[in-house]
Amino acid sequence: KVVFQAALGSLADKTKRIAALAGTIASQIGANAEQAKRAGLLAKADLNTEMVLEFGDLQGLMGHVYALNDGEDKITAAAIEQHYWPKFSGDQLPQSLEASALAIADRLDTLVGLFGINQPPTGSKDPYALRRATVGLLRIMIEQELDLDLPALIDEAYSLHANLKQDQDSTRKQLHTFIIERLRAYYEDQSIKAEVYLAVNSKKPTSPLDFDRRVKAVNHFLSLPSAASLAEANKRVSNILSKNGNGSELIDPALLTEADEKALHLAVNEVSQANITSIAQGNYQSTLSALADLAEPLEAFFASTMVMVDDVAVQNNRLALLSSIQSELGRVADIALLAQ
Predict the structure, then answer these.
(1) pLDDT above 80 (res 3)
(2) Ordered structural domains, the chain, with CATH
(3) Residue among 339, 239, 216 nearest 288 (CA)
(4) How far from 18 is each of 4, 291, 321, CA to CA, in Å?
(5) Contact assessment for residue 170 and residue 120, using Cβ atoms and an 8 Å cutoff
(6) Which of 210, 321, 334, 339 reaches 20 to 30 Å from 197, CA-CA?
(7) Sorting pLDDT into bands at 50, 70 and 90, what band is 234?
(8) CB 25 within 8 A of CB 36
(9) pLDDT per residue over 120-155, tens digit each?
(10) Closest alpha carbon to 25 in 37, 15, 14
(11) SS3 of 122, please?
């Protein structure tokens, strides 16, 4: 009996867990679930061989060789080696969806297990290299465009463990936060500003791929001529609403008396209709490009129109108009954070 970690059972226990989880992930990304599960069951078999015991760097590679020698199919055999990829920063990613499913499963199993027994990394101490495992996990999901719901996968991995000390809800929240925080450094390495990461993180996307698409869209948005003025205007909108509430439940067009507020209302409606389609398609760049069209009418509105007028009905109607703008501007990320 080879122990994986004293509180998490044997290596045999781990292989059963990652095989089951790999099968679940494979079915979600269009891979062959049976091949992924088979690779999971064989993934750690070479760790007991004299070759790997003598030359640890050959783990996975020897598993690949042994599997082919024993008649396993090429995809299953290759997945045994490739589930360790990427091994370091900038390393290659798994070359098949089956291998990617297993690579994700192996990393998630370790992360959930160690967080579940209250052994997350602390400060500079990371004996199980969980930070490196997390970056590898994120790279596979993002760079191979695998749209997976991270909290749901954490729950699935948790269910495969027995007798974890920490409850499932706490483990999910703590681990999800830990994984998403690794994205900050991931984007810094790409020269993407921290406020872009923070603006997207405020929306709490559950899919790393969806998170990445939002980040790339916001980063492109910042290059638009109207981005700075729109972000500043949105910050002003947020301040007004935080102090005075969101006004009426619905906007009453009959109470829109000023030309600039009528123009703004029309522009918001046009953007809202366009964004229904782009958001559904995950086309966040198109969404934010459309939002840029609000910069000019919003600036004109603030220049000519007083929101907090004496007429309560008109006041609440204008607050509702600003609330609808805030809602549109917040679909992809918290644009107000870009003005900090």
Answers:
(1) no
(2) 3-191 (1.10.3210), 226-339 (1.10.730.10)
(3) 216
(4) 13, 43, 51
(5) no
(6) 321
(7) confident
(8) yes
(9) 999 889 999 999 999 999 999 999 999 999 999 999
(10) 37
(11) strand
Q: Which whole number is the average pLDDT over 94-99? A: 98
Distance CA(140)–CA(91), nearest Å, equals 11
Do residues 199 and 337 make contact, with C-beta atoms less than 8 angstroms apart? yes
Question: Which helix (DSSP H) or strand (DSSP E) does residue 3 occupy?
Answer: strand 3-5
* Cα Rg, the chain, nearest whole Å: 25
CA distance 244 to 56: 64
51-56-57-63 Cα dihedral, nearest 10 degrees: 50
Residue 232: name the closest of 177, 302, 185 by CA: 302
Token pair for 89: 């920063």
pTM of the model: 0.91
What pLDDT digit, counting tens, does each position of 104-127 carry? 999 999 999 999 999 999 988 999
**Tell me, what's the pLDDT at 340?**
62
Comparing CA positions, the residue from 232, 198, 235 lying closest to residue 215 is: 198
Residue with tokens 């004299």: 50
Half-sphere exposure of 285 (CA within 13 A, CB side): 8
Supply 251's token pair: 């906007």
The residue among 239, 220, 236 whose CA lies nearest residue 287 is 220
Token pair listed for 105: 């499963």
